[in-house]
Automatic annotation (TrEMBL):
Gene Ontology MF terms in the entry: hydrolase activity
Location of the NlpC/P60 domain: 21-143
Organism from which the protein derives: Paenibacillus eucommiae
Protein name per Swiss-Prot or TrEMBL: Cell wall-associated NlpC family hydrolase
Signal sequence residues: 1-24
Top-level taxonomy: Bacteria, Bacillati, Bacillota, Bacilli, Bacillales
Length: 156
């Protein structure tokens, strides 16, 4: 009987911790990930459809930051950051058309970024995917350390 109670308590604690961890999201992640699945719309800046820079400017606006609606213009904002130094909230930029910066997404961590793709709308992708790895140009840090800490702390 004692083993059953201990086992039951252990399972309860394990699943309580696992479930709690799975649902703990930062404000940055929640704001961006709540938009997954919204379709791509050229020049789109609302939940009815986003282009890439419309998506990033919408997310940052929800977080209290104003960004221009152009991937090239957004690349001029903030401070440049090395790919090896990326942290959640950094903007990542790509040359998808062969003539300079033409696509932007928001880095989430662990090599993953979220963006509005022409074919799939708002999705997560990996920087290591062949398509993006070949087209990566630069990154910019929009969030200062204080804003980063505030927006990336897990929600309680």
């Amino acid at each position: 009987m004692k083993k059953v109670i201990v086992l039951g308590l252990s399972l309860f604690l394990f699943f309580s911790f696992a479930i709690g961890s799975a649902f703990a999201q930062s404000k940055l992640e929640k704001t961006a990930e709540d938009l997954i699945g919204i379709k791509y719309k050229w020049a789109g800046t609302t939940k009815s459809g986003f282009d890439c820079s419309g998506f990033t400017s919408y997310v940052f606006d929800q977080l209290g930051f104003n960004l221009p609606h152009s991937s090239k213009a957004q690349s001029q904002e903030g401070d440049k950051v090395a790919k090896s130094e990326l942290r959640a909230g950094d903007l990542v930029f790509f040359d998808t058309g062969g003539s300079g910066i033409s696509h932007v997404g928001i880095y989430l961590g662990d090599g993953v970024f979220i963006h509005s793709s022409t074919d799939d709308g708002v999705i997560k992708s990996k920087l290591s995917e062949s398509y993006y790895a070949k087209r990566y140009i630069t990154a910019s840090r929009i969030l200062d350390d204080k804003s980063y800490d505030r927006l990336t702390a897990e929600s309680k």
